Amino acid sequence: MSSQDFLRKMSSLLEGNENFATATVVGIKGSTTGRLGFKILISHDGSILEGNLGGGCSENVVVEEALQAMKEGKPRTMSVLLEEEEKGGIGANCGGSMEIYIEPFGARNELVIFGGGGERSIASPLVQFAKILNFDVIVIDPGATKEMYPEANRIIPEFADKARDHVKFGRNTSVVIVTKHKYDEPSLRAVVGLDVPYIGLVSSHHRASALFKQLTEKEGVREEDLKKIHVPIGMDIGGETYEEIALSIMAEIVKTLKGGSGRSISEFKGVYVKGREEEISPPVISSQNSS
């Protein structure tokens, strides 16, 4: 393996917006199979794409640690003891140890919006909120222009069925359909069943139910795939304006990606929470009159 091959593969993963990690030998003691600077490139599924650390046993335990680092999004170091398991090692008999530095590279979050309408729609503030949260944003709509959504990373002025081939939907891609009912069906058909963390549809419960029934009975769409669609969309924050609704949608997307509860933090971590043993009494304020 050459350094150029390793860097080329890393560059390809970055361009493809993939999750991956590198693991590099940064220290050795005693007899080891690896050498300083040995490194491997680990994909999101745990497969080793490039490089080696000097042996399968050490690589297996490093991959497990790298997957955890990718999940948490934080780098770490680990020691690999090349001894028998009875001595606390990994089952090797070299007798030495290696220090490994693991660095995860997370894919950028991406939001794909089907539908437009410019300033007089949910799409415009949705783009703005997503950019504040460091999402890459793609707007798909036949009438969309860069002038309408200057903050968006890409504008695809096509209908859903044609535009789908121009987008790489991945594990970090969230989808919002805000087509004002006119193109709800083709947009849903383009994305339903995709392996993405979030698909939301701006629609009433009644209208969505009728649409889902049509998709299952006439289009053969699986009911389990439709159950993954968030509709009605967003968190319940009492939003009424386009901006408030867009905020509630982004809140639901972040909750889905991060695994939050959607509850107010003060409800279960506040100072005065019913049933908490460590409930804190209000401070006593005293005053003294000076003569």
What name does the CATH topology of the largest domain carry?
Rossmann fold
Assembly state here? Answer: single chain
Low-confidence stretches are 286-291
Nearest-integer average pLDDT: 86
One letter per element, helices H and strands E, the order comes to HEEEHEEEHEEHEHEHHEHH
Task: State the end-to-end distance.
Answer: 86 Å
**Beta-strand proportion:** 15-25%
- The helix-and-strand class reads alpha/beta
Cross-sheet strand order for the largest sheet: 8-7-6-9-10-11
Going by CATH, the architecture of the largest domain would be 3-Layer(aba) Sandwich
CATH homologous group name of the largest domain? NAD(P)-binding Rossmann-like Domain
Q: Please provide the count of β strands.
A: 11
Major β-sheet profile:
6 strands, parallel
What best-fitting shape do the alpha-carbon axes yield? elongated
Estimate the helix proportion, in percent: 25-40%
> What gyration radius follows from the Cα positions, in whole Å?
26 Å
Query: Which CATH class of the largest domain is shown?
Result: Alpha Beta
Number of domains: 2
Number of helices: 9
Characterize the structure shown:
It is a single chain. This protein is of the alpha/beta class and 291 residues long. The chain has two domains: 3-105, no CATH class; 110-258, Rossmann fold (3-Layer(aba) Sandwich), CATH 3.40.50. The protein contains nine helices and eleven strands. The protein has a six-stranded parallel beta sheet, with helices on both faces. Strand 6, helix 3 (123-132) and strand 7 (136-140) form a beta-alpha-beta unit. Helix 3 crosses helix 8. It is elongated, with a radius of gyration of 26 Å. 31% of the residues are buried.
